[in-house]
Amino acid sequence: MLSPHVKENLKSVSLIVLVFIAWEFSCVIFKISPIVLPRPSVVFTTLIVQMPALWPNILQTLATTMVGFLLGTIVGVALGVLVGVSRTAYKTAYPLLVGFSSIPKVAVVPIFVLWFGSGTVPAILTALTTCVFPIVVNVATGLATTEPEMEDVLKALGATRMQVLWNVSLPRAMPYFFASLKVAVTLAFVGTVLSETVASNLGIGTVMMMATSSFDVPLAFAGLFALAFLGIALYSVFAVIEQRVCGWANRRQELAVN
After folding, report:
1. How large is the average pLDDT for residues 106-116?
2. For 150-176, what is the HEC assignment?
3. Rounded to an integer, what distance in angstroms lies between the CA atom of residue 96 and that of residue 241?
4. Higher model confidence: residue 121 or residue 199?
5. pLDDT tier at 160 (50, 70, 90 boundaries)?
6. What is the band of 255 on the pLDDT scale with cuts at 50, 70, 90?
7. Is residue 70 predicted with pLDDT exceeding 80?
8. What is the sign, positive or negative, of the torsion defined by CA atoms of 85, 88, 94, 100?
9. How far apart are CA 193 and CA 173, in angstroms?
10. Which string of DSSP letters, residue by residue, matches 39-63?
C-alpha cells in the first residue's frame, strides 16, 4: 500500500512524462521541423552525445552561479536584517533596492563588462544582483512578523535588542529565508546565463548562443534542459534543508487536499 506522499509524487511524475509524450507526438503528427521545435527524444540524445563537450560548460555555469548566489545571500541577509530592524534603513534602502531590481539585468551586464572585462566576474555579479532582492524582501518580512508584544515582554525580562533579534526574530524569519533561497537560486541561473550570452567564452549560455548562430536548435534545447536539471536539483536541495530546519513551520502533508 503506497503512502499518500508517494502517490502524490507518482502523479506529478506521470503528468511530467505525459507532457513530454504530448510534445513528442505533436512534433511527429504536425511534422514540425527540428529547427523550429526539436522532439524531446532528439534533445535528450543530443544532451547525451554532446555531454563530453557540454560538461565543462555546465560546471562553469554551476560554479559561477553558486558563487554569485552565495555572495547574493550574504548581501541579501545583511540588507534584509538592516531593513527589517531599522525604520530609517527601510525608508532609505528599500526604495533604492526596488529601483535597482526594476532595471533589466541585460542593461547592467555591459557596465560590468566595462568595469571588469568579459569572463566570469560579470557573470558572478549579474547572478548576485539578480538574486539579492527576493532575499532582502523575505528576510525583512520575516523579521517584521515578530509580535511587538513578545518583544516588549522579552525586553521587560531584561533581554537586549540583539538578544531578541538573535533568539526570536531570526528563527521566526527562517521559513521566509528558505522560501527566498528557492526563488533566488533559480534567478541566479538566469543572471549567469544572461551574462554568458553577452560576455563569456565558457558556460551554457555561450554554448546556446553558438548553437543558435549555427541553427543547431537541438543543442540549444539541450542547454536549456541542462539548466532546468541544475535548477531543479538545487531547488530540491534547499527544499530538503528547509524541511529539516523549518519543519515546525510547515503544515503536515496529510492535511493537504488530494
Report:
1. 90
2. HHHHHHHCCCCHHHHHHHHHHHHHHHH
3. 31
4. 121
5. confident
6. very low
7. yes
8. negative
9. 30
10. -HHHHHHHHHHTHHHHHHHHHHHHH
Q: How many helices (H) and strands (E) does the chain have?
A: 11, 0
Grid cell, residue 92, equals 532609505
For residues 71 and 132, is the Cβ–Cβ distance under 8 A?
no
CATH architecture of 45-255: Orthogonal Bundle (1.10)
| Cα distance between residue 173 and residue 144, in whole Å | 8
How big is the chain, counted in residues?
A: 258
What is the Cα–Cα distance from 26 to 65, expressed in whole angstroms? 34
| Separation between Cα atoms, residue 127 and residue 193, nearest integer Å | 9
Domain boundaries defined on the chain: 1-32, 45-255
- d(C-alpha 34, C-alpha 215), whole Å: 10
Written as one letter, the residue type at 20 is F
In the numeric block, the cell 538592516 is attached to 82
Measuring CA to CA, how many Å separate 107 from each of 22, 49, 100, 191, 202? 37, 35, 11, 12, 21
* pLDDT in the model for residue 248: 66
